[in-house]
Each structure stands twice: as C-alpha cells, then as structure tokens.
Automatic annotation (TrEMBL):
Originating organism: Companilactobacillus ginsenosidimutans
Protein's recorded name: DUF2508 domain-containing protein
Xref: Pfam families: DUF2508 (PF10704)
Superkingdom classification of source: Bacteria
InterPro entries with a match to the protein in the record: DUF2508
Length: 95
C-alpha cells in the first residue's frame, strides 16, 4: 500500500527452511564421516546421527509439500556426489 514493497512471509519462511535443511544436512554428513572413520562408535553418536537424519528427512518432506524452490542453483538434496544429472563426456558416449 502506498508504494511500500509487500513482505512475502512465505518466501522468507521457505528460505529459512532451505537454510535449516542445508545446516542439518552438513551436520549429518559430518557425523556420518565420523562414524565411517571411527573404530568404535558410541551409542550416543549413533543416536545423534539417526536424529539428524530424521530431522533432515522431515524438513525435506516439508519443503516438498510446500513446493519450495531453492534460490540458488546448488543441489541441496543430493550434494556433490550426485552424477545422475551430469552429462557424459565423449569417451563415455562412445561404447
């Protein structure tokens, strides 16, 4: 009204949700690396890892339900290891 820019609460909350997803995914990845590289893992660490994975899953499903779109072109769901969407080079095409 009167030339003021309207605040879109949904976009603000979607951005906050995506930030939370990135943060929890990073924590879960760090805990997973710790579990993979440790000889003896305590039950507390395993419980923390499971809890982080459940938090991530819940927030991911909430983002899907809300049809949230990322502001950046980064792939927050699969991380850097995902090669499904990458194009094969010429050597891989020629089989």
């Amino acid at each position: 009204m009167f030339g003021r820019k309207k605040v879109n609460v949904q976009k603000i909350e979607d951005n906050r949700l995506l930030d939370d997803i990135r943060e929890i995914q990073a924590r879960a990845n760090n805990l997973q690396k710790l579990v993979d590289n440790s000889l003896e893992v305590s039950d507390e660490t395993r419980i923390k890892l499971r809890l982080e994975m459940l938090k991530y899953q819940f927030l991911y499903l909430e983002a899907r339900r809300r049809k949230t779109q990322a502001r950046e072109t980064t792939n927050i769901i699969f991380g850097d290891e995902d090669t499904f969407l990458s194009q094969p080079n010429t050597a891989e095409k020629h089989w």
